[in-house]
Write the structure tokens for this entry.
Amino acid sequence: MEILSQNLYALRKRKALSREAVARALEMSAMTYQRYEKNLRDPTAPVLVKLADFYGVTLDQLVGRAPLPPAEEGR
């Protein structure tokens, strides 16, 4: 899912986090998270839920069925 990978990248950059930091927070390997972000692997449904919760967005927003919320001011 190309839009998912783009959204993961955008959301991570908004939080100024490294891939390694996100992977650690989500208890997955950095390589696994990188594959999601580079559109080399699709996450399972439970992982999608964890990603959406971590970034504070809905599943629809994460997978591109709804727009991402605007970035916070000052970022």
Notes: Helices lie at 2-14, 19-25, 30-37, 45-55, 59-62. The chain has a mean pLDDT of 95. The chain is about 55% helix and 0% strand. The radius of gyration is 11 Å.
